[in-house]
């Protein structure tokens, strides 16, 4: 196990370096720079600004400086666009917000998704099974940029129950709509995966044996069937969580939650090099972290798996 | 250099247009109008003004603010020497009065002694000197440092270029309450420029002790009517009443909240839900919104023009006949009244008609019916050798935006049905688009321009041969002469009208429409500066009623 | 991407075992089981109808997809409503363009993105996985480490970056989406190949002197086809969803082309202004098509994996 984690970490380093270099080069090969605007800045002024941000140096030096800053001081540099802010601050401000509603969406999706899935599996081929399943599939494919304004239309403009956006430090009424909009499609996927893997487990020999032995129904379901049925769900959760974080760009656009989602697109559009590198590294790290976590969980649930 | 020249000419000519104020001016504090509700209105108990902000602002530092949204915040947190009133006229700010002498090259400002920073310290002339030197300092590298240069403050250009020390700037504090500014050339327009946020003072001691962190909420010390209480990037910024502000008594709004809402439909939904007092009307929905809610829907002309550029370095767009044919066959009524339908007006010349002093030219083609223009366009295009058997092929470049997309599609359809022109659409994101335009690597490109100040030269100088912004690359010495000589004329508008005539003949750009700003304002919010064409608003001048 | 590959892997093992025991009747059995799956058959029928609609639909259109109805323009809420009289069966979009034609055209683009994207993923993933699994040894190690590294890349983000910088083109969408989806495929195929490679018929081929590449293409690939098909069916809706996300960000196809993603996000923008048809029609086609793909995918999986029965 330790060996496995160590190997994973070993891969993480070249992956991150690859990501940084790749994004850095793409970014700098893009037309336009962070300080270009409709009114061109006089050359003397532009030279002053580029000097201030070190953009007058050769590309490889800029990259080395940047990586050096991260390694030695964990400093991701100043934002080129938000001049009062450093990348560290932007991420420190936005990431907890994204994590908060992301985590709640996640819990919401997993708890309800698994319940629906198990329920549907236990009532296989009944109308309840079909209706929950159809609901799940529709939920899965309804894009969240339709879901989000729809929720606002219903809960804010028609019913007036919940605010249409904002965050206000994370008060509960501000979290609900973003978390629901973000979680629904994952909830649906989880429900479907749970249902089919539960069905598979229920038809397997060891459950039949358990039934034959006359074990109570509840014990069979919760003690014997649920755990192995969760394996495919767990392997889905790693990429799902990272997908939620990336998908937060839509949530931040519609609900003005102030998470890091907007930076994913805006930093590229604004050519805010340092923020772009910051979020690239953050997302890369998260992706690696979660796939490692999933593998560990997996090994814990299914001792047959060895790495 | 070109840049400086054109802006210089512009400012200079503007100055001449306003030469009436070339005399000693004295204004007293008593003349200031402040927010005061009309008697029968009942003030709301909660004076919290909430508005929608499209994007996160780039900085709270007056010398770093670049965007319109940022300067709205900047005008609340800081106060310059002068302010604008609801009509856009200059009224005293920190400066109580000023004297102009030596043919508009020397300005002496008397500061009010009641002006205080939010930490209680007095605002002095030294703070202005510090802020202005900071703006020009190459080490500070403000993207707006050129503003000091076009204000012609002595030595500004040399300081920016690194040839002189910032301390040599022609602005000195004679004593704590007297600021003396020397210009390198006559500029009667100078005082008007001081309502710009980049000229606002900053507290030297705070800036120097806290460094980059001085703009953080809690640390930021300003001299405006409000202080920054909270700032969450991409979510909100909250400013509350500054008890130390000299005119605090006449300030009604207690708290101002700017909410960042990217999506305009979502923003309007939240306006309808009563969550914000002010937002923009979603593109294309003005008519419907106006019918639904006429009391809270407004449209105001803006000093901006929307036009298409022709790349005159590329055949066949080097041929004026082709350019004219394309320009004539755009049905401006359809675009202004049906697609945008929010108070915009079709444009047959570049300068917006509302521009101060501008006399709209009598261009022939504006008087013809669209059918006549279409027929003429077909003739012109046939003359240039294009027709059904040899269709003109071109691409339209535009930057990503719902409105630009709609207009490009509509125009491509007009060209297709009327002239048989085959169009491809090329949508690029902003920075790539700017690059492509500047190269120039396009056939026809969408462009828009908003005046830097209220005078026609801010538009017309754009097309001068050596202007960096002349992306159509059209060159005419006659046109250049018209605008250069305008700077020394008593009425430059004569030449502006002639220049517009030249544009109508050569058509290096196809004017399409003049902008309008469409906003939704809650009926509870009063004091909005509807008559200020630059839309520079101050929260302290507004108030909320029940 | 978000496909549950563990499940597919398990299925792959079953499939391999099955091949051993049942021999030639496997495909016929599977087909039989598929025909008896009502949901899957319904999905297949709906999908066929959608495809037929995109092919035949244009014949009935009275407007082409880029033509503006100047009479409806400026008064979309009433003049642009769905109507047989005006020839706008599905109404018009905000610019007075016929939604019927645009939905057909958007359906074509979205289906193409889904199918071509999956094809790219399938071809690359299958060849890559089969090669790694068959040759094995150090090459296998290196190739699979590469997949591990690629798996840790936040693709959606990279794709956004590429679209921002290299501009929008339908080509880039195909490549971008296809290239990020082959990773799971290659892992599954590799696992399959490992269990196939010691089988007698492979050994016979080696003994007969068949070149390595031919063994992979002629003997390995056909034997992993079942799992590949299932996976590909589940991949198509993922591709379409990805495309719609990119379109929402304004980075989709270039006008006057359109796609479901573009139409739906435009429709969603105006849904509170009384032009609900702009959202309803594209969303309807989007939902029924994706539902069909899901049912077909599930049906195929059940058909090819008899363990559930």
Structural features, described:
The complex is a heterotrimer of chains A (307), B (546) and C (309). With 307 residues, chain A is an all-alpha fold. Helices cover 77% and strands 0% of the residues of chain A. Chain A has eleven helices and no strands. The longest helix of chain A has 39 residues. Chain B is of the alpha+beta class and 546 residues long. In chain B, the strands form five sheets. In chain B, strands 11, 12, 13, 14, 15, 16 and 17 form a seven-stranded mixed sheet that branches. In chain B, strand 14, helix 13 and strand 15 form a beta-alpha-beta unit. In chain B, helix 10 runs antiparallel to helix 12 and helix 16 runs antiparallel to helix 17. Chain C has one domain: MetI-like fold (Orthogonal Bundle). The mean pLDDT of chain C is 80. Chain C contains 13 helices and no strands. In chain C, 52% of the residues are buried. Classes of the chains: A mainly alpha (307), B alpha+beta (546), C mainly alpha (309). Chains in contact: A-B, A-C, B-C. Chains A and B meet through helix 2, helix 4, helix 6, helix 9 and helix 10 of A and helix 8 and helix 14 of B.
- Which structural class is indicated by helix and strand composition of chain A? mainly alpha
Order of helices and strands of chain A: HHHHHHHHHHH
Roughly how many Å is the radius of gyration of chain C?
Answer: 23 Å
Net shape of chain C: elongated
**Straight-line distance between termini of chain A:** 7 Å
Looking at the overall shape, the CATH architecture of chain C is Orthogonal Bundle
The CATH homologous superfamily of chain C is named MetI-like
Strand share of the residues of chain A? under 5%
Classified by CATH, the class of chain C is Mainly Alpha
Strand content of chain C: under 5%
Q: How many helix segments of chain A?
A: 11
Number of domain units of chain C: 1
How much helicity do the residues of chain C have? over 70%
C-alpha-based Rg of chain A, rounded: 24 Å
Overall SS class of chain C: mainly alpha
Helicity level of chain A: over 70%
Biggest interchain interface, per-side counts: A-B, 54 and 52 residues
What's the count of strands of chain C? 0
Low-confidence stretches of chain A: none
